[in-house]
Structures are given as C-alpha cells and as structure tokens.
Amino acid sequence: MAYRLAKQSREQRAIDAVHTMSDFVNDMTRDEEQFLVSMGREHRTLQQSFTGLCFAWIRKCAEKADTGEYDERNEYSVQKCQEITKKVELWTPPLV
User: Fold this and answer.
1) Which of 74, 79, 81 is nearest to 60 (CA)?
2) Where along the chain do its domains lie?
C-alpha cells in the first residue's frame, strides 16, 4: 500500500480522499458511530492530524460566508462554522 501511495501525487491522494468521504457522507444509512469508533482506534498522531483537517475545513467553510460561495443547501453549515470560528480559536494541532 505504501508503494501505491508513493506513486500517486499528493494532489490526487487529496482528491481521492474527498471522493471517499463524499461517498460516505452521501450514504443516508452510513454508520457514523462505527466511523467514530474506528477513528478513535487510529494512532494518536493520526487522530491529531484528522482533528487538524476538521478544523481546517471549519475555517474554510466559514470563509464561504464572506465569498458568497454557498446556497440554501449548505447555508446552515456555513453559518455554524462561522459561529464556531468566532468563539473558538481553531489551531493546527502539533504533531508529537
């Protein structure tokens, strides 16, 4: 697996990860609890990195309020992310 990942570009790996996550969240019968349990079993550093990715998404989503890059389908997410960023400093977690 490491060899396969090394051959792919970082950009393509990011695109593939987005497609995988989009497929997961688009499944109305998805098992969120199993996702959470599984992520909780990953290496602690990977959990830290995933949290940083989630924070980065929240910051990016909040920016959509300023750019107008949203409509009624994701308006709630944009508004809530904006509220979060106003109340909480979302940092990039250190990798230990």
Assistant:
1) 81
2) 1-30, 43-96
16-62 per-position pLDDT tens digit: 999 999 999 999 999 999 999 999 999 999 999 999 999 999 999 99
The pTM score is 0.83
SS3 29: coil
Residue 76 is encoded by which pair of tokens? 């709630």
Distance CA 59, CA 2 (A): 30
Q: Please give the Cα distance from 91 to 61 (Å, whole number).
A: 15
State how far the Cα of 60 lies from the Cα of 53, in Å rounded to an integer.
10
**Rounded Cα distance, 62 and 13, in Å:** 24
